[in-house]
């Protein structure tokens, strides 16, 4: 067994190799960058092999959130060629959403992805380096043992990952127990992977995150899915994976400057910040939610405000919700009433409206 110090050194070498082995000197590199750790690690690794002028980055989302502001700040500090995409100023058309649905295999909710039409226009067919599964493999979703009963763990996973919370869209009589039957559970992972993580990897990551990040039409490099890194990080004891402990230590050793900059992970502070300072910043973040009216940790629009106030966006929603209502496939829902109640401020149903619109767009994308 390796000591913590040896694990950090070993992990550092493997991580640098995972990035450099996909490096091609004559290529340009595109890295979507947020306020988190994975995308920054990729940029830092590329900077060991090339100059910042050869690295293109983009950040999308809501202004004044950690992901958007810190992503832009890090790009400026590191000197990459950077594109900012404030989603408040971008409106999707129905045709564009249909094309995105096709690129996503007609699955997952819409409006939580970058404007791929713009990304393709700016960067063309340039290879995109994605941090997919970086934090998750390192233990970001490693939770204390919830239960030995897999059905209870599945129900906990469903509760944690329920998107629509404003309304009950389920058919009458449909329960969480029924929904649990749709959950994939793969027990082929090694023993270090908890039951909750198995469910998360196979359902949230592959069915929800993957389609959002890795749409058709682009070529991707996935450094954190390299065989050596995967085998290394998944083999360490869970005490080193909890809260990404070892991963953070590896990043600080390997890329000290890049991770001396602010991060979303530490609520706006550098990764090396002390626990007391991080706790204080976390409290400030929670308090600011009530002062600002939105959560700094969430990089998406205030959809309840945006759908009501953005005329073009409202028209897209209304058009597609009317079409969905006419299909009568959700016969137990009065979609037109939900829409009218929403417009009249009788309820903040944006999450339900996005889910319903996504369903209609996916149906249209399939030509039905």
Can you give me a brief rundown of this structure?
This protein is mainly α and 368 residues long. The protein is built from 17 helices and seven strands.
Helix count from the secondary structure assignment: 17
Q: What class, by secondary structure content?
A: mainly alpha
Strand content: 5-15%
Strand order of the largest sheet: 1-2-3
Helix content: 40-55%
Largest sheet: 3 strands, parallel
Q: pLDDT under 50 segments (min length 5)?
A: none
* SSE order: HEHEHEHHEHHHHEHHHEEHHHHH
For the termini, the CA-CA separation is 57 Å
Task: Specify Rg, calculated over alpha carbons.
Answer: 21 Å
Q: Find the count of extended strands (DSSP E, 2+ residues).
A: 7
Q: Rough shape?
A: globular
Provide mean pLDDT, rounded.
Answer: 93
Any chance you could write out the topology, listing elements then pairs?
Layout: H1 4-20, E1 29-32, H2 38-47, E2 55-61, H3 66-78, E3 81-86, H4 94-103, H5 116-123, E4 128-129, H6 134-138, H7 150-160, H8 176-180, H9 195-213, E5 220-221, H10 227-233, H11 238-241, H12 245-254, E6 262-266, E7 269-270, H13 275-292, H14 303-309, H15 311-327, H16 335-343, H17 350-365
Parallel strand pairs: 1-2, 2-3, 4-5
Antiparallel strand pairs: 6-7
């Amino acid at each position: 067994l390796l000591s913590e110090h040896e694990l950090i050194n070993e992990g550092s070498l493997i991580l640098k190799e995972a990035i450099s082995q996909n490096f091609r000197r004559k290529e340009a590199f595109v890295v979507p960058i947020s306020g988190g750790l994975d995308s920054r690690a990729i940029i830092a690794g590329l900077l060991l092999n090339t100059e910042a002028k050869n690295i293109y980055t983009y950040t999308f989302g809501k202004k004044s959130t950690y992901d958007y502001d810190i992503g832009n700040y890090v790009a400026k500090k590191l000197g990459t060629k950077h594109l900012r995409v404030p989603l408040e100023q971008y409106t999707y058309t129905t045709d564009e959403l249909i094309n995105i649905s096709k690129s996503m295999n007609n699955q997952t909710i819409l409006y939580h992805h970058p404007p791929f039409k713009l990304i393709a226009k700016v960067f063309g067919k340039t290879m995109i380096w994605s941090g997919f599964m970086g934090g998750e493999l390192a233990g970001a979703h490693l939770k204390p043992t919830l239960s030995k009963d897999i059905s209870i763990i599945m129900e906990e996973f469903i509760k944690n990952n329920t998107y629509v919370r404003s309304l009950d869209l389920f058919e009458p009589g449909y329960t969480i127990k029924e929904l649990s039957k749709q959950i994939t559970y793969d027990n082929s992972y090694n023993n270090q992977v908890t039951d909750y993580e198995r469910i998360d990897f196979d359902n949230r990551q592959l069915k929800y995150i993957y389609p959002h990040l890795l749409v058709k039409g682009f070529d991707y490099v996935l450094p954190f899915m390299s065989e050596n890194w995967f085998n290394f990080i998944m083999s360490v004891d869970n005490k080193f994976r909890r809260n990404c402990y070892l991963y953070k230590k590896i990043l600080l050793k390997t890329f000290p400057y890049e991770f001396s900059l602010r991060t979303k992970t530490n609520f706006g502070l550098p990764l090396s910040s002390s626990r007391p300072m991080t706790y204080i910043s976390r409290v400030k973040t929670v308090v600011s939610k009530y002062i600002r009216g939105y959560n700094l940790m969430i990089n998406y629009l205030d959809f309840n405000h945006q759908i009501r106030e953005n005329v073009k966006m409202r028209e897209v929603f209304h058009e597609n919700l009317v079409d969905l209502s006419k299909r009568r496939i959700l016969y137990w829902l009065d979609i037109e009433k939900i829409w009218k109640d929403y417009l009249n401020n009788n309820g903040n149903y944006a999450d339900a409206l996005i889910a319903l619109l996504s369903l209609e767009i996916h149906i249209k994308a399939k030509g039905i």
